[in-house]
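WARN no homologs supplied; continuing
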Amino acid sequence: MIGIEHFLFQVSVGGLLGFATGYAVKKIAKLAILVLGIFTAILLYLEYSGVITINYAKLTEIMYNMWQVVSAKAQGMQSYVASHIPFAASFIPGFIIGFKKG
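OK structure emitted
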């Protein structure tokens, strides 16, 4: 059993870190989407012009493999969250609020 001080520490730190993480994730995601969109548009234009040829089968395979890695990491994170309930219970709302403010 944990003491009330430890519990309050986990809850407050979880909320603050959640807010900061949510805020940063939204800012970084906006930039990443912009860069990815520009990169994709350039690649499609180059393919349309005949400068390059995109191997869509290989691209699909790479994206599927990346999805498998992300999925495996998410499973590991799920067990971590379950073992740190007070931290996670405040981190998640903090993340959502930070994401909305970002």
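Helices lie at 4-49, 56-83, 85-101.
OK
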